[in-house]
Amino acid sequence: MTPAARTQTAIELLDAIIAAAREGGASADVLIARAMAARRYAGSKDRRAIRALIYEAIRRCGEVPQSGRAAMLAVAADDPAVAESFDGSSYGPAPIAFGEPVATGGVAPAWLIDALAASGVDGDQAAALLGRASLDIRVNPAKASVAMIQDAFPDAQPTPGLALALRLPPDTRLEASEPYAAGAVEVQDAGSQAVTLAAAAQPGMRVVDLCAGGGGKTLALAAGMDERGEILATDTDRPRLSRLEPRARRAGVAIVETRLLNPGAEADALADWSDNADLVLIDAPCSGTGTWRRNPEARWRLTPARLARLVETQARLLDVAAGLVRPGGALVHIVCSLLDAEGAGQVDAFLARNPAFRVEPLALPLGTPHGPGMRLTPLNDATDGFFVARLVRA
Ligand SMILES: C[S@@+](CC[C@H](N)C(=O)[O-])C[C@H]1O[C@@H](n2cnc3c(N)ncnc32)[C@H](O)[C@@H]1O
User: Where is the active site (predicted)?
Assistant: First the structure.
């Protein structure tokens, strides 16, 4: 493909991504994968170049751009090679017209920048939310030692304080590797591994992973339990939860049971665990402001109304979890967001409603104290952004 044809393809895909962001459609990654599968003439170099153009445009535009072309013109404004590709050739975009609309740059929509600033996230911290994400893995101690995995990936770097975490070069073909096929490693951001340590899961515990999804944190909890005890992994999303059991089998984990919940009726479905769990982990559904490095178009999807709904669900899930924790047991609240409404403020509000719980201070290998818990950020910790707090029932 010519550079002009690549730019035109990127513009068309950006149009689809913008429409999906406005209408709640599929993510950019999914739309790009679908489009590439349909464009068999695009070689691997073309695909990489088109993908890079699209993500450059998404990162550059804080507000939802008016069109894919306006977003690409924002890239062209700083990149002469992209500007030259607007050459009017048969598969390329029309030449740039004088006074054509160019999408406005910026980190995020203005209301979100204000909300982040009110949560203590300054301009540098906010800009780092759009940096490049690393490729981190967690070694599964049931299947391999860290040294064995370092032999398989000689460029892997350890993460200080995280005994099972390794950072790989971003172009590592992990999924085609033997350790991956054997369940000896799981892809998991180092920050995600660090916040899961707040749970301090131990052998013999009865644990509820209330928002288990596909089980990333469930398996990290299991790694600390040495196949002794019980983990009930629940979620309201059937397709996500259905991925957990095969993943647990692949990892050699047999102490996990899954249970599908109905939104709004979680407590009824969990009545048999009432006052009975040593540990409840809530990896809550959230705005994902801490994961923009991976899904930068997520900031175009978030609205104040959607954020308010998420905050309401999180509060409800915290109250459901409180009913499951036994006296002396612990509740851990995690969000991959830097907004206090979902993290520190959410936990403060829970404590005001539930005086039987108190905050237990955390000592994690990454992160800094923030309100009743700890915060990890891309700028400070080179991980996704997280808030985590550990609460103990009297
Ligand atoms: C941050 S994701 C969890 C990721 C997962 N723990 C992991 O480590 O891979 C949040 C999850 O909460 C689930 N969820 C949303 N509403 C829920 C509810 N009312 N009860 C339980 N889970 C819910 C979503 O389906 C989603 O899988």
Answer: 336
